[in-house]
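C-alpha coordinates incoming
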Protein backbone atom coordinates (compact mmCIF):
# COMPACT_ATOMS: atom_id res chain seq x y z
CA UNK A 1 0.00 0.00 0.00
CA UNK A 2 2.90 2.39 0.76
CA UNK A 3 4.34 1.82 -2.72
CA UNK A 4 1.04 2.78 -4.37
CA UNK A 5 0.84 5.93 -2.23
CA UNK A 6 4.43 6.83 -3.14
CA UNK A 7 3.72 6.38 -6.85
CA UNK A 8 0.55 8.46 -6.52
CA UNK A 9 2.41 11.26 -4.77
CA UNK A 10 5.16 11.15 -7.42
CA UNK A 11 2.62 11.40 -10.25
CA UNK A 12 0.86 14.28 -8.46
CA UNK A 13 4.16 16.16 -8.06
CA UNK A 14 5.01 15.70 -11.74
CA UNK A 15 1.56 16.86 -12.86
CA UNK A 16 1.77 19.84 -10.51
CA UNK A 17 5.16 20.82 -11.93
CA UNK A 18 3.82 20.60 -15.50
CA UNK A 19 0.81 22.71 -14.54
CA UNK A 20 3.10 25.36 -13.03
CA UNK A 21 5.19 25.42 -16.24
CA UNK A 22 2.07 25.98 -18.37
CA UNK A 23 0.72 28.69 -16.05
CA UNK A 24 4.11 30.44 -16.04
CA UNK A 25 4.26 30.45 -19.82
CA UNK A 26 0.71 31.80 -20.02
CA UNK A 27 1.58 34.62 -17.61
CA UNK A 28 4.73 35.61 -19.49
CA UNK A 29 3.18 35.41 -22.98
CA UNK A 30 -0.17 37.03 -22.25
CA UNK A 31 0.83 40.47 -23.53
CA UNK A 32 2.18 39.27 -26.90
CA UNK A 33 5.45 40.12 -28.63
CA UNK A 34 6.77 36.57 -28.21
CA UNK A 35 9.24 34.74 -30.46
CA UNK A 36 10.81 31.28 -30.21
CA UNK A 37 14.44 31.85 -29.41
CA UNK A 38 17.38 29.73 -28.30
CA UNK A 39 20.38 31.21 -26.53
CA UNK A 40 23.81 29.64 -26.30
CA UNK A 41 24.52 29.54 -22.59
CA UNK A 42 27.85 27.71 -22.76
CA UNK A 43 30.64 27.63 -25.31
CA UNK A 44 32.69 24.89 -23.64
CA UNK A 45 32.01 22.39 -26.46
CA UNK A 46 31.57 23.17 -30.14
CA UNK A 47 27.92 23.16 -31.17
CA UNK A 48 26.67 22.56 -27.63
CA UNK A 49 25.19 24.75 -24.93
CA UNK A 50 21.96 25.81 -26.64
CA UNK A 51 18.98 26.36 -24.34
CA UNK A 52 15.48 26.58 -25.85
CA UNK A 53 13.18 29.33 -24.76
CA UNK A 54 11.18 32.29 -25.92
CA UNK A 55 11.89 35.96 -26.17
CA UNK A 56 9.55 38.79 -25.29
CA UNK A 57 9.96 42.30 -26.63
CA UNK A 58 9.38 44.89 -23.92
CA UNK A 59 10.25 48.41 -25.04
CA UNK A 60 14.01 48.57 -25.59
CA UNK A 61 14.63 45.09 -24.20
CA UNK A 62 14.45 41.56 -25.46
CA UNK A 63 13.79 39.37 -22.44
CA UNK A 64 14.69 35.71 -22.81
CA UNK A 65 12.93 33.06 -20.71
CA UNK A 66 14.02 29.43 -20.55
CA UNK A 67 11.40 27.05 -21.87
CA UNK A 68 11.58 24.68 -18.91
CA UNK A 69 11.98 26.90 -15.87
CA UNK A 70 9.80 27.93 -12.95
CA UNK A 71 11.22 31.46 -12.80
CA UNK A 72 8.91 34.34 -13.66
CA UNK A 73 11.87 36.62 -14.33
CA UNK A 74 13.80 36.44 -17.60
CA UNK A 75 17.06 34.51 -17.55
CA UNK A 76 18.71 37.05 -19.83
CA UNK A 77 17.87 40.61 -20.90
CA UNK A 78 19.33 42.11 -24.08
CA UNK A 79 19.10 45.89 -24.37
CA UNK A 80 18.60 47.33 -27.84
CA UNK A 81 20.90 50.26 -27.01
CA UNK A 82 24.04 48.16 -26.63
CA UNK A 83 23.22 45.28 -28.97
CA UNK A 84 24.88 44.84 -32.36
CA UNK A 85 24.71 41.91 -34.77
CA UNK A 86 28.22 40.86 -35.83
CA UNK A 87 27.55 37.80 -37.90
CA UNK A 88 24.79 35.57 -39.21
CA UNK A 89 25.29 31.89 -39.97
CA UNK A 90 23.49 28.60 -40.43
CA UNK A 91 23.71 25.83 -37.78
CA UNK A 92 26.79 23.66 -38.14
CA UNK A 93 27.68 20.19 -36.87
CA UNK A 94 25.91 19.29 -33.61
CA UNK A 95 23.85 22.51 -33.76
CA UNK A 96 21.79 21.05 -36.61
CA UNK A 97 20.39 18.50 -34.12
CA UNK A 98 19.66 21.10 -31.43
CA UNK A 99 17.38 23.34 -33.50
CA UNK A 100 14.96 23.22 -36.44
CA UNK A 101 16.37 23.23 -39.97
CA UNK A 102 15.12 26.71 -40.92
CA UNK A 103 16.80 28.49 -38.00
CA UNK A 104 19.62 31.02 -38.24
CA UNK A 105 22.27 31.82 -35.63
CA UNK A 106 23.11 35.44 -34.93
CA UNK A 107 26.31 36.34 -33.11
CA UNK A 108 25.72 39.58 -31.27
CA UNK A 109 27.74 41.83 -29.03
CA UNK A 110 26.25 43.67 -26.12
CA UNK A 111 27.62 45.90 -23.38
CA UNK A 112 28.34 42.85 -21.24
CA UNK A 113 29.65 40.11 -23.50
CA UNK A 114 29.15 38.39 -26.87
CA UNK A 115 26.00 36.31 -27.14
CA UNK A 116 24.73 33.85 -29.74
CA UNK A 117 21.02 33.58 -30.37
CA UNK A 118 19.14 31.33 -32.76
CA UNK A 119 15.72 31.90 -34.27
CA UNK A 120 13.64 31.02 -37.31
CA UNK A 121 14.72 32.62 -40.57
CA UNK A 122 11.33 34.33 -40.83
CA UNK A 123 11.79 35.85 -37.35
CA UNK A 124 15.21 37.35 -38.12
CA UNK A 125 13.67 40.12 -40.24
CA UNK A 126 11.39 41.21 -37.41
CA UNK A 127 14.23 41.04 -34.90
CA UNK A 128 16.49 43.20 -37.10
CA UNK A 129 13.64 45.69 -37.62
CA UNK A 130 13.17 45.94 -33.87
CA UNK A 131 16.92 46.36 -33.42
CA UNK A 132 17.11 49.17 -35.98
CA UNK A 133 13.96 50.94 -34.71
CA UNK A 134 15.76 52.88 -32.01
CA UNK A 135 14.00 55.96 -30.66
CA UNK A 136 14.93 59.36 -32.15
CA UNK A 137 18.36 60.57 -31.06
CA UNK A 138 19.65 57.11 -30.16
CA UNK A 139 22.65 55.63 -31.91
CA UNK A 140 21.60 53.06 -34.50
CA UNK A 141 23.05 49.59 -33.88
CA UNK A 142 25.80 48.22 -36.10
CA UNK A 143 24.72 45.54 -38.56
CA UNK A 144 27.68 43.86 -40.24
CA UNK A 145 26.40 42.51 -43.54
CA UNK A 146 29.55 41.02 -45.05
CA UNK A 147 29.08 37.60 -43.39
CA UNK A 148 25.36 37.17 -44.07
CA UNK A 149 24.38 34.15 -46.17
CA UNK A 150 21.74 34.56 -48.84
CA UNK A 151 18.21 34.18 -47.53
Amino acid sequence: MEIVEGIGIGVAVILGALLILFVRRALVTRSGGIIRLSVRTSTMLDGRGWAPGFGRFAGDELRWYRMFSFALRPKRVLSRKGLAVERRRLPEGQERFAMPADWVILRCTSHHAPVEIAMARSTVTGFLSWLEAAPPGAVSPRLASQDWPAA
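note: The mean pLDDT is 82.
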